[in-house]
Amino acid sequence: MASRPRSFRDELIALQREIYRRNQRRIHDAVEGDSAEFRRYEQRYLRSLRPPRRLADFDELCNEFRGADVIYLGDYHTLEQAQRSMLRVLRAV
């Protein structure tokens, strides 16, 4: 049985995850003194992160932003579409 072709979005997410993994390895390799204390701190930090439950659509995202006091935004700087998306969200809000 042939698998279905991945969508552009699926490919983009896979690429971003791979870039993230590579950067994590680079950071880990560059950190001197990777001590037991640092590893304990890192594990506490990672446990504190809540994984996303599901993807939100654009309107839902904008509605959540409108009700927030503070919003942290970020984009993948080398990807022009990511910058456009953030601008689109800001204009909508």
Note down, in words, how this protein is organized.
The chain is mainly alpha-helical. The chain folds into two domains: 1-51; 54-93, no CATH class. The protein has four helices and no strands.
The major pleated sheet works out as:
none
Rg, Cα atoms, Å: 18 Å
What is the global morphology?
extended
Give a count of the beta strands, DSSP E runs of length 2 or more: 0
Quaternary structure annotation: single chain
Number of domains: 2
Overall pLDDT score: 83
Low-confidence stretches: none
Task: Spell out the blueprint of helices and strands.
Blueprint: H1 8-30, H2 36-48, H3 58-66, H4 80-92
Quick recap of the structure?
This protein is mainly alpha-helical. The chain has 4 helices and no strands.
For the structure shown, list the relevant keywords:
93 residues; mainly alpha; 2 domains; 4 helices
